[in-house]
From TrEMBL:
Keyword Hydrolase: yes
Domain of life of the source: Bacteria
Keyword Membrane: no
Name of this protein: Nicotinamidase
GO molecular function: hydrolase activity
N-terminal signal peptide: none
Key words, A-Z: Hydrolase
Assigned protein family: Belongs to the isochorismatase family.
Organism of derivation: Photobacterium phosphoreum
Length: 285
């Protein structure tokens, strides 16, 4: 008899995306240095999302066969961070500035490293022609080895307890290390490079779905990295495999101001056969 395989995919459950309450913003020791948790891009309601997901993992511990976590992983110098860009006065753009292809053509914004000019012209043109996100400058976030890059405590503790209970190791998929392209989805960058395999399509998450009977999906943010990851996976799946996917809708939230994008994503995925449910309504086994 076939044993049902249940997997959990957690997308970018990192401190920089969670609205950590004041009393939880303690300092932590990292390489003997004191660091305070100060989220760069806190998503509204996300701390409650984290605690609901942690409770779900604890409650379903013996029924979960795989846990896969994607980690947004950037350098300070990144195409979606301020220091990558400057105006004619040498000033860097403020967070949430939109940079269009035309802005670069007109010289309103140029790459700080002028040798990247042809790249950013091609990059922004590609984003706009394919109907992807307009290039947006985010607060500097998820810098590798920073506190903001690490998994939030409630979810990390729940994963650790699951590992102890099941003797299974959770899997990490890192994305975003190439500073010259954005990498919202867990399968491939927005603008893959021929000479960088880490920006090209990675079949791991598609294979996870194909080898599972059920895949629960959580993480942050619903409007961006969760949406992109699920869209990238679904594009490679048959209708039968799409039916294996369930988004735990009470454990993920949109970036403030992007609620409509999240709603459109949910409507589109529901129409394709992806299920939406809350952690309290899930029965496994």
């Amino acid at each position: 008899m076939h044993q049902k395989i249940t997997s959990l995919l957690i997308i970018d459950p990192q401190y920089d995306f969670y609205n950590v309450p004041q009393n939880e913003q303690f300092t932590v020791n990292s390489d003997l240095e004191q660091q305070t948790i100060s989220p760069a891009l806190p998503v509204p309601h996300s701390w409650k999302d984290a605690n609901r997901l942690a409770t779900f993992i604890h409650n379903q511990q013996s029924h979960i066969n795989n846990i896969v976590v994607t980690l947004d992983s950037h350098h300070e110098y990144d195409i979606a961070h301020s220091i990558y860009w400057q105006n004619k006065q040498g000033e860097h753009p403020a967070p949430f500035t939109l940079i269009s292809h035309q802005d670069i053509v007109e010289g309103i914004w140029q790459p700080t490293e002028l040798k990247m000019l042809n790249h950013v012209l091609g990059y922004t043109q590609s984003l706009e022609q394919t109907g992807k996100y307009c290039l947006i400058i985010w607060p500097t976030h998820c810098v590798i080895d920073s506190v903001g890059h690490s998994i939030v405590a409630p979810i990390e503790a729940a994963i650790n307890a699951w590992e102890i209970q099941t003797a299974i190791h959770h899997q990490i998929i890192s994305k975003g290390e190439n500073p010259h392209t954005e990498h919202y989805g867990g399968c491939e960058a927005e603008y893959p490079f021929i000479d960088d395999a880490k920006t090209q399509f990675d079949p791991q998450l598609v294979d996870l779905v194909k080898s599972s009977d059920h895949v629960f999906i959580s993480g942050q943010a619903l409007s961006h990295c969760v949406a992109s990851t699920v869209e990238q996976i679904v594009a490679k799946l048959s209708p039968n495999d799409i039916n294996k996917l369930t988004i735990l809708i009470d454990t993920t939230s949109p970036v403030a101001g992007f609620e409509q994008q999240a709603k459109t994503f949910i409507d589109n995925m529901t129409n394709l056969g992806v299920k939406m449910t809350t952690t309290t309504d899930v029965i496994i086994g």
